[in-house]
Automatic annotation (TrEMBL):
Pfam family, one: Abhydrolase_11
Species in which this protein is naturally found: Haloactinomyces albus
KANL3/Tex30 alpha/beta hydrolase-like domain sequence ranges: 24-181
SUPFAM superfamilies linked to this entry: alpha/beta-Hydrolases (SSF53474)
Record-linked Gene3D superfamilies: alpha/beta hydrolase
Protein name: Alpha/beta-hydrolase family hydrolase
Amino acid sequence: MTSIEIATPHGPARAELHGAAEGRAVLLLGHGAGGGIAAPDLVTVTRAATEAGVHVALVEQPYRVAGRRAPAPARQLDAAWLAVAEDLGERWFAELPLIFGGRSSGARVACRTAESGQAAAVLCLAFPVHPPGRPEKSRHAELDGVEVPALVVQGERDTFGRPESAHRREIVLVPGDHSLKSDTDAVFRAVGEWFGRILRLLD
């Protein structure tokens, strides 16, 4: 594991790099609004990805690096994420396909930036379809804007809603709530199987 700082328009971000034995792609994983990269589902997905042959960069947004708890506005999150993706793509993982991913708020960032960042696929963990109890405040359009293959792993009891499947978008429901920590084995299996299919598409 290697930890590096990356300059962004909104202060330094940090990336924790986990190498796969034979890396065929790179997964950039972002954290949730109030949590960090040590979240159980992010740790599980890092293990599943590296075992499948995918390098992983766990990305800490600048507000977390600076020690702030409150997340930055979406525009700043997206700009910082794209700066990290560009730097990693040029300096560390040249010519490898980039897969964008994250949990909760990080999943929203991955979806919003997938096109401009030229992501080959998108992985969403606990996508927050709407605030709890507010289905009229839907964010489903962010998922619908993703044109590349996508996987959403969602807890069966997630109070942030349940996404709909669509062309090129798979939904896998696992036991548990928004934290996705009730059954990390189910998360591991779902992500590992998806990577197997995605890597065949990218070869």
